[in-house]
């Protein structure tokens, strides 16, 4: 930082500000925000600018673990027993196929390449894990709904559990084969099941306490209770060395099945979770080392290819055997590529237990995480788009205001604040002729791609749809697109007229400002179409609410 020593608070502010900027760029470039946060962290980290003091890393650790805990709690809270039963009927078969294919292909591929067998086996178990924070946050960002989304959440939970158990069993088998180990195999197996049981019990108890507490204290105190329970539970997991990911997953499942306020509890945590996850991903990006990715060499490429192939082929084969829907068969595998937390944690355990065995494994995991964490979210977004599970409004890039327009609105609001004691009176002798914005209407025969292109190049939230002679036949409202799912397979069949809703309220150029103001008071739209009064009432442009308010403020200033 050129001699400037940043306080840790300033570092957090820098990371959040950088994340805000790249988040806006991500919207313009159609990138998942998770990918943008990881990339800006990578640039600010030691791989490029080295702008984050290394000694601040330990200060971030409690917040990052809390972020992961809250994400897992959120994931678990989606699984009421009725939903688990519905998804598990087919989800367990998909999980079995995916994990089996992934383990066999990764292990076999590395052995064929010439990698040591024991390391290949352990890497095969780590390949099962899917990054929960990355995957869940992308699903939430795009508000996706459907069978692929549902099964992705279920498989993420199962995969991480399967990876932990498989890793411990594989490590135990390697020690037995070598004839090494300070304790007997049976004792080590007992420690494994004791650790898993401890996670389950701790998560269940914490979930019951949260449900019980939220049942009788006021909602204004819920956040304190939730953070207290989560942080205390996280500390217990560290103290007793039990896998905290499983603990918070079970905690969420318990709340989902014991509290009538489950959705409200999750909503209460959402703002805190969102903020912490921004920090989680940008710091995680800063911890990624591009040089480590290069250092893995060919073996890293083999691991990447085999893992992605195993995930996709496993889902495809299991879904085909189980006669799952086509979108599940083709696109579910692409939602499971992201990898980070669990695999990194397990590779660190391997290093602590046996450095000779663990260090090469950790090198491969830390190197390939750079690839999986950047490509994984992109693959999830693409898969969800292709499966038709993302609302149309989330599939396109749109901003409702320009930088200049936002500045003008800010100044207008400041002026209104200064004159708060007065009421704005519309000038009755003015009409809206000079306020009309000449914008292009969307032809009713326009394809969905043309509609999207129009929206992405407009800063309005309401768009006039016109027929061949230029008469308004309806409007398309951007907020209403949230209810329409983007389905690539039928997008070529959709026309603007299919998305348009009839409109009864139209303005004419000789209408008074007072009439226009009254019209806007009765609708939520940010603009209204203006048409000629004479038949066939040709579309002339739009009157924007912000322009009308600016005129009123200017009028009040003069009066």
Describe this structure in words.
With 559 residues, the chain is mainly alpha-helical. The chain has 2 domains: 8-387, Na+/H+ antiporter like fold (Up-down Bundle), CATH 1.20.1530; 403-558, CBS-domain. It is built from 21 helices and 7 strands. It has helices spanning 8-29, 33-44, 57-76, 81-113, 117-126, 132-141, 147-178, 185-216, 222-240, 244-258, 262-287, 290-321, 326-331, 341-353, 355-386, 392-395, 403-418, 448-456, 496-499, 513-521, 545-558, and strands at residues 390-391, 442-443, 462-466, 472-477, 485-486, 527-531, 539-544. The strands form 3 sheets. A 3-stranded mixed beta sheet has the order 2-3-4. Helix 18 (448-456) links the parallel strand 2 (442-443) and strand 3 (462-466). The longest helix has 33 residues, at 81-113. The model has no long low-confidence stretch (mean pLDDT 88).
Lateral arrangement of strands in the main beta sheet: 2-3-4
The SSE order reads: HHHHHHHHHHHHHHHEHHEHEEEHHEEH
Main β-sheet: number of strands, strand sense, barrel status? Answer: 3 strands, mixed
Give the rounded overall mean pLDDT.
88
CATH topology of the largest domain: the name is Na+/H+ antiporter like fold
Query: How far apart, in Å, are the first and last alpha carbons?
Result: 54 Å
Number of DSSP helical runs: 21
| Assigned CATH architecture of the largest domain | Up-down Bundle
Give the % helix: 55-70%
């Amino acid at each position: 930082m050129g001699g400037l020593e940043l306080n840790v608070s300033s570092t957090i502010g820098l990371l959040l500000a950088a994340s805000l900027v790249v988040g806006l760029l991500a919207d313009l470039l159609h990138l998942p925000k998770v990918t943008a946060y990881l990339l800006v962290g990578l640039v600010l980290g030691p791989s490029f600018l080295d702008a984050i003091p290394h000694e601040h890393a330990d200060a971030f650790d409690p917040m990052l673990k809390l972020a992961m805990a809250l994400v897992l709690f959120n994931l678990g809270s989606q699984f009421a027993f009725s939903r688990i039963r519905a998804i598990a009927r087919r989800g367990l078969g998909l999980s079995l196929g995916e994990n089996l294919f992934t383990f066999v292909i990764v292990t076999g591929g590395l052995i064929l390449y010439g990698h040591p067998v024991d390391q290949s086996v352990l890497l095969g178990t780590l390949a099962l894990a899917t990054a929960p924070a990355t995957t869940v946050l992308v699903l939430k960002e795009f508000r996706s709904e459907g069978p692929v989304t549902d099964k992705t959440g279920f498989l993420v939970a199962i995969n991480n559990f399967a990876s932990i158990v498989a890793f411990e069993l594989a490590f135990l088998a390697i020690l037995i084969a070598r004839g090494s180990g300070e304790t007997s195999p049976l004792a080590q197996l007992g420690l494994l099941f004791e650790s898993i049981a401890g996670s389950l019990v701790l998560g269940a108890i914490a979930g019951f306490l949260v449900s019980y507490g939220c049942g009788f204290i006021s909602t204004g105190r819920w956040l304190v209770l939730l953070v207290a329970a989560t942080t205390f539970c996280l500390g217990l997991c560290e103290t007793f060395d039990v896998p905290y990911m499983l603990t918070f997953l079970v905690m969420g499942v318990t709340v989902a099945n014991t509290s009538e306020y489950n959705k409200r509890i999750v909503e209460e945590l959402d703002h805190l979770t969102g903020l912490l996850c921004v920090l989680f991903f940008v710091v995680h990006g800063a911890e990624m080392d591009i040089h480590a990715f290069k250092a893995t060499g060919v073996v890293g490429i083999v691991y990447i290819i085999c893992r992605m192939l195993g995930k996709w082929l496993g889902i495809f084969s299991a879904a085909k055997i189980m006669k799952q829907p086509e979108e599940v068969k083709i696109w579910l595998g692409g939602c499971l590529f992201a990898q980070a937390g669990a695999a990194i944690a397990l590779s660190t355990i391997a290093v602590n237990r046996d450095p000779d065995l663990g260090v090469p494994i950790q090198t491969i995991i830390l190197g390939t995480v750079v690839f999986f964490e950047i490509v994984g979210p992109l693959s999830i977004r693409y898969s969800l788009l292709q499966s038709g599970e993302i609302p149309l409004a989330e599939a396109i890039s749109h901003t409702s205001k320009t930088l200049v327009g936002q500045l003008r609105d800010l100044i207008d609001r400041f002026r209104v604040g200064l004159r708060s004691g007065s009421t704005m009176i519309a000038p009755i002798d003015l009409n809206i002729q000079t306020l009309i914005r000449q914008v292009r209407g969307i032809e009713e025969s326009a394809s969905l791609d043309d509609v999207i292109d129009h929206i992405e190049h407009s800063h309005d939230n309401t768009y006039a749809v016109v027929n061949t002679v230029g008469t308004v036949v309806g409007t398309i409202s951007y907020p209403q697109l949230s209810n329409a799912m983007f389905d690539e397979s039928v997008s070529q069949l959709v026309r603007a007229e299919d998305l348009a809703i009839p409109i009864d309220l139209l303005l004419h150029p000789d209408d008074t400002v007072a009439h226009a103001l009254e019209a806007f008071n009765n609708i939520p739209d940010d603009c209204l179409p203006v048409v000629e009064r004479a038949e066939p009432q040709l579309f002339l442009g739009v009157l924007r609410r912000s322009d009308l308010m600016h005129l009123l403020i200017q009028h009040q200033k003069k009066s």
